[in-house]
Specification:
Length: about 130
């Protein structure tokens, strides 16, 4: 069983958004699976960089869609994206040789942020289709 499972409540009905959400969930699962006593700091940083790059690309996609549709909650939604990226940068900067102490809850945190964002902000994007 995966650490994070896709939930129907995340579905926006926008194919590219839903695909990118699934990719992000898969990466969090990869990160979770990679965090064991043999994992090196470099390996953790590599996966985190991948998560960060996918986040940036995904948020850009969503923001372009929202702007095209003149989405009314754009500013609020974008602000949450920026907060997620800030948090992610903070985590990446905190990865040191003692990464196991600083990142023990990393996958849990990422899951919580994404799940909350998917549910609170992204799920409303289905309105773009109307
Ligand atoms: Fe999203
Ligand atoms: Fe979003």
């Amino acid at each position: 069983m995966n650490f994070v499972e896709w939930k129907q409540e995340y579905c926006t009905g926008i194919a590219s958004v839903d695909r990118e959400h699934r990719d992000l969930i898969e990466l969090i699962n990869t990160l979770h699976a990679s965090l064991d006593h043999d994992t090196t700091q470099d390996q953790v940083v590599t996966v985190l960089n991948e998560v960060y790059e996918q986040m940036v690309a995904h948020f850009a996609n969503e923001e372009a869609l929202m702007q095209d549709a003149m989405y009314p909650a754009f500013a609020e939604h974008k602000l949450d994206h920026e907060t997620l990226l800030d948090d992610m940068r903070e985590i990446m900067n905190s990865i040191t040789e003692e990464w196991r102490d600083s990142t023990s809850d990393l996958a849990v945190d990422l899951d919580r942020w994404f799940s909350d964002h998917f549910r609170v902000h992204d799920a409303k994007l289905h309105k773009l289709l109307k």
